[in-house]
Amino acid sequence: MTDINAGGTFMLGDRSVRRMGYGAMQLAGPRVFGLPKDPAGAVAVLREAVASGVDHIDTSDFYGPHVTNGLIRAALHPYHDDLVIVTKVGAVRGADASWNPALQPAELVSAVHDNLRNLGVDTLDVVNLRITGAVHAPSEGSIEEPLSALAEPQQQGLIRHLGLSNVTPTQVEQGLSIAAIACVQNHYNLVHRDDDALVDSLDARGIAYVPFFPLGGFTPLQSATLSRVAARLEATPMQVALAWLLHRAPNILLIPGTSSLAHLRENLAATSLHLSDSVLADLDHIAAGPLDAASSH
């Protein structure tokens, strides 16, 4: 079993966690909607992730909806004291699997209670406010009302820490003026690096940055250069992409998702992959110029 301690640790709120975590989104059915074909397999993936040392899991009650949280509860409840479960609110799913904003105060409070009930906990470790924006890209606009709406359940002890997801640097600054922010979760990977300055700014403040789509999301990263580097290192391109993120900044926490035990093991093994300065330069060249195959979008 892979020792993921080589990836290091960072603070997530008031808890030190290993930087390699796990994202539960892919445990739901196709298009993150409905039940998985193999619920027992999903439970096995979650249990092996935790047994391998993963101590932070990313989820949401709108995955499914109400599917991944139920699987997490079935697999891991009662939870280990050192396990941090990070969820998010701010969207609901339509009957057609669409992703729809749900940012009104009453909707957000209802979502908090859904997460509490379906995870089987009295307090949520971290709740990310997901700003819908352009679905998987942020757009400017005030976040004062929805973030302030989460203050009441936090004061009631239902939420330990707050985070932000799919936000702009301006919105991060506004969020920090309203509440303590434990983490920011945005689209970021080897080739999608719009948040470079934000990553560094958050690092200086001791705030975790959690990239979603670390491997390209629904369109996996593809690059001839990435493939050549991976072959030279006797690794997979996805392992190299994850290792690059771990090298990029110490405040980056990873949450790659998979419903496969084999892929889970591959992802975890990226923590022990060493990238030399020359390899890092080659990979940075991919980000600086046009991809030599497909992009992450």
Folded structure, characterized:
The chain has 297 residues and is of the alpha/beta class. It has one domain (8-218, 251-257): NADP-dependent oxidoreductase domain (TIM Barrel), CATH 3.20.20. The chain is 37% helix and 17% strand. The chain contains eleven helices and eleven strands. Strands 3-4-5-8-9-10-11 form a seven-stranded parallel sheet. Helix 1 (39-51) packs parallel to helix 10 (261-269) and helix 8 (224-233) packs across helix 9.
Strand count, sense and barrel status of the largest sheet are: 7 strands, parallel
Mean pLDDT: 93
- The total tally of domains equals 1
Radius of gyration: 18 Å
Which geometry do the CA atoms define?
globular
Element-by-element helix/strand order: EEEHEHEEEHEHHEHEHEHHHH
**In DSSP terms, counting alpha (H) and pi (I) runs of 4 or more, how many helices?**
11
Determine the structural class based on helices, strands and strand pairing.
Answer: alpha/beta
CATH level 1 name: Alpha Beta
Q: Got a strand count?
A: 11
CATH level 4 superfamily: NADP-dependent oxidoreductase domain
Low-confidence stretches: 289-297
Distance between the termini: 33 Å
Trace the largest sheet across and list its strands. Answer: 3-4-5-8-9-10-11
CATH architectural name: Alpha-Beta Barrel
Strand-residue fraction? 15-25%
